[in-house]
Amino acid sequence: MANVTKRGNSYRIRVSCGYDVNGKQVFQARSWRPPENMTDRQIKKELERQIVLFEEECKIGRVTAAIKFQNFAEQWFDEYAVLNLRKTSLNRQRQLTKRVYAALGHLRLDKITSRDIQKFVNDLAVNGRNIQTGKPLSRKTVIHHLSLISSIFSYAVKMDMLSTNPCTKVTVPKGEKKEKSIYTIDEVKQLFELLEAAPLKYRAFFMLAIYGGFRRGEMLGLEWKDIDFDTRVVNIRRTSNYTNKNGTFTDTTKTKSSQRSIKLAETVINVLRNLKSEHDTMREELGNQWIENDRLFVQWNGKPMANNTPYTWLKRFTEKNGMRFCDVHSMRHFHASLLIFAGVDPATVSADLGHSAISTTTGIYVHMFQEAQARTSDVIANALDFSKTDKTEEKKAS
């Protein structure tokens, strides 16, 4: 039942909406001011209508949107994120809350507007800095912040606390798009030559990265049972990840589509055979010191390799040999570029990379696909260049 109080020319409508988790009664209030040209009878009738409308809004749960954004965000983490997100994704979302809570955490959920969020996003894009490096935040990082806020509001809408998500009207400012730094064919040839003298596990790791186009976590999560040496097929079934809270742990693949099987060249399989033999020898030599597990990539005692080890090792290795450094993920881009420029269709490239949708592949490699498609015009032009045929016929005739 609503309680109405007249305050000057306006009316304050107050509705009881049950009790919170602490047993405290919760109220929601709204003010309504009638237009000046209304008669007393019209005011009474319209006030009754406003009361009914407000009570209906309270019944569907919008009252609970009076909660502060940070408090509700923590509920979202407990009720949704912890139950549905992978540990790495959950950890990433937690890291984003520092800036988000500072800007929006103190505001009521139902009072935050699209403009409030737009100001925050614009400020991140212009003034945001990476805490560790001091460099400007990338556009991708800004998008991640907006995505977190949007996920929280979407949950509020789903729970009937709000009718709309204000993030749908927010635009992330365009930033300078950096070209992906990837190795050339000649550089990969040089890298393979240098890896001949490198520890076997690193030679195997980077050959898998280039030949298979696998993600770092996918390779670190590989186990010997995932390798079929007879068919030369490598099966991606899990990932190895790291967070400060959990340390190194085994996780599911990024998406269901990331679980895939790829047939590799004999040269890669031979390196893996040698790596398996090396593991067997190390296990025998270390005895009780060996930490038993089925992983391909391990430390000296059999313990799974740390996630940052391949990056750190490659950086030092390339610097030592006077070679340009491109990070581990760039090898996945190199693998994709070989497929695209060889004329492999987007659907096949997408399946090979383990993307959840073809649009993901075409979005990431849009320029590569455009360049590859542009070459088709030359193919058609050469095929229909009858002048070449005429000149050949003339030479034969002479």
Q: What level of helicity do the residues show?
A: 40-55%
| Class from secondary-structure proportions | mainly alpha
Number of domains: 3
Tally of separate helices = 15
- Look at the structure and name the CATH superfamily of the largest domain: Intergrase catalytic core
Task: Provide keyphrases for this structure.
mainly alpha; hpI Integrase, Chain A; elongated; three-stranded antiparallel β-sheet; 15 helices; 3 domains; DNA polymerase, domain 1; 398 residues
Descriptive notes:
- The protein has 398 residues and is mainly alpha-helical.
- Helix content is 53%, strand content 11%.
- It is built from 15 helices and 8 strands.
- The chain has a 3-stranded antiparallel sheet with strand order 1-2-3, with helices on one face.
- The termini are far apart.
- The mean pLDDT is 88.
Strand and helix layout:
Blueprint: E1 2-7, E2 10-19, E3 25-32, H1 40-59, H2 69-84, H3 87-104, H4 114-127, H5 139-158, H6 185-195, H7 200-212, H8 216-220, E4 227-228, E5 233-236, E6 239-243, E7 247-251, E8 260-263, H9 266-286, H10 309-320, H11 328-341, H12 346-353, H13 358-364, H14 366-383, H15 386-397
Antiparallel strand pairs: 1-2, 2-3, 4-5, 5-8, 6-7
Produce a short descriptive summary:
The protein has helices at 40-59, 69-84, 87-104, 114-127, 139-158, 185-195, 200-212, 216-220, 266-286, 309-320, 328-341, 346-353, 358-364, 366-383, 386-397; strands spanning 2-7, 10-19, 25-32, 227-228, 233-236, 239-243, 247-251, 260-263.
